[in-house]
Specification:
- The protein has 512 residues and is mainly α.
- The chain folds into 2 domains: 186 residues, Up-down Bundle (Growth Hormone, Chain: A); 216 residues, Up-down Bundle (Growth Hormone, Chain: A), CATH 1.20.1250.
- It is built from 24 helices and no strands.
- Helix 2 runs antiparallel to helix 9, helix 6 crosses helix 21 and helix 17 packs parallel to helix 19.
- The protein is globular and about 65 Å long.
- Its main location: membrane.
- Belongs to the major facilitator superfamily. Sugar transporter (TC 2.A.1.1) family.
- Keywords: Membrane, Transmembrane, Transmembrane helix, Transport.
- Pfam families: Sugar_tr.
Length: 512
């Protein structure tokens, strides 16, 4: 007999039948508090990526060897990325084995330790080791926060709640510019800039002690009574039973699978190959469409417009960071109203136009020394880029990756896709200036525009719409894409034979 899954509470049909049970973004203070607490990991992520640009100016003043070595400067900046790659790669396993809560606590301890090491560093080499520790914490947090929030969220508002983590990232970047500005006249400037980052990590550690473990993770670890206690704080009685039924059905499906999975198992399963390709591809395109380089290049764009004041450049950085955060707020609304796919595509269309405007302005600027008009055109292109990128390609990759993988693979695949994001980030950061020197700034932004076109095609072809779907319904999408529309939870034994062949379930597992 085929396995049949009960109607899931988050499905569109269920909520159409019981619209009074549809939860709003602010509908449950407990879930919102959990989301904000977990999202502090995103704040750490954003703060660290933004603060180092200002701190490096003062690090060079304190350490002559850093001032004389561009390699040391690049290493101080990029070592956090190296740590994040390692943290993201290991974070999936930590999440699956120890749980989302312990993974968050571990990330906080490592990050706080790194902040202390950086603030007290007697030489640049100790500073680099602190940057590595901070990166490890950021990497683990970048995997954990979206998954933790997604597993505790009702399906109808899951996109908005997960996007809150991205809002915290952009908010952290904005905060870093404020902190950079605040400590410019304080003795030990860069030590304060870097050391203050440990405060949110300590705050999150304390708050997480009072937060529950993910109910879905608890249920899959056969700690059902604990999971139900958490669920009773999230749902009323009328919906609680259906949520438990959904988890029970998911547990039954997981029971048919192998007890543990490894990284190679992701590539042995056809469904998982398709899901990981979509998720990792989104993460890669988020970076290769140039978000970090566009933000990095903003001071130069201001200079093109005829303004050469350092204070104005800092002010622009604040404006850009504020626009990024404001755009993410817009994304939180639209991601659950318009859907992930439509939001990503509309975002990419605007990004393409914006990058073309930037490219044209740089081409014209290089051929026309007057340049005031084209400088302002470049500023317009920058503003449009942030306005279009922030609501869509900012939150969508993280949201989609938090919901497209089955429970058994969610930690591992989330970690692998986050690793792809960090590696892509590192590649772009390390090659951008070289590409500008060899091809020119206008051509570089045109290359980014071409990549954005490929990203739009990728989204159309490979990324499914997951708006309002339960995790079980999302998993069904990959089964249908892998084996055809007739395969699924209620399909014949042929589907189970396919799963056995790919190692997804144990040989001889019961069919009913």
């Amino acid at each position: 007999m085929a396995l049949t899954i009960p109607s899931a509470p988050g499905s569109s049909g269920y909520l159409d039948m019981f619209p009074e049970r549809r939860m709003s973004y602010f509908g449950n203070s407990y879930i919102l508090g959990l989301t904000v607490t977990a999202g502090i990991g995103g704040l750490l992520f954003g703060y660290d990526t933004g603060v180092i640009s200002g701190a490096l100016l003062y690090i060079k003043d304190d350490f002559e060897v850093v001032k004389q070595s561009s390699f040391l400067q690049e290493t101080i900046v990029s070592m956090a990325l190296v740590g994040a790659i390692i943290g993201a790669a290991s974070g999936g396993w930590i999440n699956d084995y120890y749980g989302r809560k312990k993974a968050t606590l571990f990330a906080d301890v490592v990050f706080a330790a790194g902040a202390i090491v950086m603030a007290a560093a007697p030489d640049p080499y100790v500073l680099i080791s602190g940057r590595l520790l901070v990166g490890l914490g950021v990497g683990v947090a970048s995997v954990t926060a979206p998954v933790y929030i997604a597993e505790a969220s009702p399906s109808e508002v899951r996109g908005g709640l997960v996007s809150t983590n991205v809002l915290m990232i952009t908010g952290g970047q904005f905060l870093s510019y404020l902190v950079n500005s605040a400590f410019t006249q304080v003795p030990g400037t860069w030590r304060w800039m870097l050391g203050v980052s440990g405060v949110p990590a300590v705050v999150q550690f304390v708050l997480m002690l009072f937060m529950p473990e993910s109910p879905r993770w608890l249920f899959m670890k056969n700690r059902k009574s604990e999971a139900i206690q958490v669920l009773t704080k999230m749902y009323d009685v009328s919906r609680l039973e259906d949520e438990i039924d959904d988890l029970s059905a998911a547990e039954e499906e997981e029971r048919l699978r192998k007890r543990t999975v490894g990284y190679l198992d992701v590539f042995r399963s056809k469904e998982m190959r398709l899901a990981f390709f979509a998720g990792a591809g989104l993460q890669a395109f988020q970076q290769f469409t140039g978000i970090n380089t566009v933000m990095y290049y903003s001071p130069t764009i201001v200079q093109m417009a005829g303004f050469h004041s350092n204070q104005l450049a800092l002010f622009l950085s604040l404006i850009v960071a504020a626009m990024n955060a404001a755009g993410t707020v817009v994304g939180i609304y639209f991601i659950d109203h318009c859907g992930r796919k439509k939001l990503a595509l509309s975002s990419l269309c605007g990004v393409i136009v914006s990058l073309i405007i930037l490219s044209v302005s740089f081409f014209k600027q290089s051929s026309d020394d007057g340049g005031g008009l084209y400088g302002w055109l470049a500023v317009l292109g920058l503003a449009l880029y942030i306005a279009f990128f922030a609501p869509g390609m900012g939150p969508v990759p993280w949201t989609v990756n938090s919901e497209i993988y089955p429970q058994q693979y969610r930690g591992i695949c989330g970690g692998m896709s986050a690793t792809v994001n960090w590696i892509s980030n590192l590649i772009v950061a390390q090659t951008f200036l070289s590409v500008v020197e060899s091809a020119g700034t206008g051509m570089t932004f045109l290359i980014f525009a071409g990549i954005a076109v490929l990203a739009a095609i990728f989204v159309v072809v490979f990324v499914p719409e997951t708006q309002g779907l339960t995790f079980s319904e999302v998993e069904q999408i990959w089964k249908e894409r892998a084996w055809g529309s007739n395969s699924g939870w209620g399909s014949s034994s042929d589907s189970n034979n396919n799963l056995e062949a790919e190692g997804l379930i144990e040989q001889g597992s019961p069919r009913s």
